[in-house]
Amino acid sequence: MRAIPYDDDGHLPGSQAYRRLLIALFFIGVATFAQLYSPQGLLPIIAVEQDITADQAALMVSAATLGLALGVIPWSYIGDAAGRKPAMIWAISLACLFAVLTTVAPSFTLALTARFFEGFMLGGVPALAVAYLNEEVSSKVVAVAAGTYVSGTTLGGLAGRIIAAPIGEQLGWKLGMLVVTALAVICVLVFLRMAPAALRFTPRRTGVSEALGALFGNLRSGALWVIYLQGFLTMGGFVAMYNYLGFHLAGPPFLLPIWLTSLVFLAYLAGTWSSPRAGRMASRWGRKKVLLVGNLITMAGTALTLVSEMWVIIVGMVVLTGGFFAAHAVASGWAGARAVAGRSQSASLYNLGYYAGSSVFGFLGGTFLHQAGWSGTVIMVLVLTALATALAALVLPKN
């Protein structure tokens, strides 16, 4: 007889294994996204030290997110064969190694190369975390569990930015990133200690034709295409906002120091708050409704940053961050739950779109910044989010 709540569909809330799994995934989310976004608050410093433009400095973020986008699908197959937990351990450990190599690289080009491979290794976590949840947790609470994982990613993104920026301003951007890597290693150790053994995973090796079938089978679904595009369009805009906000606040009329602008990243706490709540609301009211409301809130917050008042910009960033992560928590869980072929491959396709958007629009936002100032970047983001919202409203089912 089981001493913990469990049904044939997976772990239930109240069980020790359920709590351990959520804690483990929370911390590996922190480790992953602290490293991925640690350069973001440092971009103005990197631009000055390397004598490069804002969009060139943003390649420190885009190189890693491009690597992650390309890594999620290979890691999903590694996870199918070796197991979700072992694959995530290898992925995050190798990512920490490349993070260290980034800080000792003798040139900016080599640092970008190391960042690309760091991102490729980090791809193992988002590629497998949601699939791990879908397998081990009862389908009744998958949306809630996915929201908890996403809240860990928001805290990771916040920690990476808010720790690296003030240290980097005083001691150089490389040391700022190295301190974040040390934090990530501690989080990895927590994951190793807490993650329970898989009970419902069956290892399987996939041939090339079967692998392609599992991958591209999901692309026959119009609804899944729209879910993947949610990540591509909204994440691209979200990263652009945070990439270039520091440049906006460092210039006139604000002229803020880097350590102070980095405090704007505290807005990430809105995402930590909203993502698990969005999962619960999706279980109650339906995924589509929560996704659409999240996108509309994101657009409202984005528009507020056009006002040249510091307090309004801060409110705008809090609002857009809460809205974005609410929508992302729903979409990321939906990608796995609605898979028509390989579940982990569907989650990986979502992450491919999510981080490809981050790379593409995270860079292009700088082009709009050069051409039209901050309003150019904001308008780009509004158009991207509006397109995602229209597609979701027209194509996605209620659940």
Automatic annotation (TrEMBL):
Membrane topology of this protein: Multi-pass membrane protein
Domain of life: Bacteria
InterPro entries: MFS, MFS_dom, MFS_trans_sf
UniProt xrefs under Gene3D superfamilies: MFS general substrate transporter like domains
Main location group: membrane
Sequence ranges assigned to domain Major facilitator superfamily (MFS) profile in this UniProt record: 17-399
Subcellular location, record wording: Cell membrane
A Pfam family recorded for this sequence: MFS_1
The keyword Transmembrane is annotated on this UniProt entry: yes
SUPFAM superfamilies: MFS general substrate transporter (SSF103473)
Membrane spanning stretches: 21-37, 57-77, 89-110, 116-134, 141-163, 175-195, 225-245, 251-270, 290-307, 313-337, 349-368, 374-396
Keywords: Cell membrane, Membrane, Transmembrane, Transmembrane helix, Transport
Protein family according to the UniProt entry: Belongs to the major facilitator superfamily.
Stored PANTHER family: BLL2771 PROTEIN, INNER MEMBRANE TRANSPORT PROTEIN YNFM
This protein's name: MFS transporter
Lineage: Bacteria, Bacillati, Actinomycetota, Actinomycetes, Micrococcales
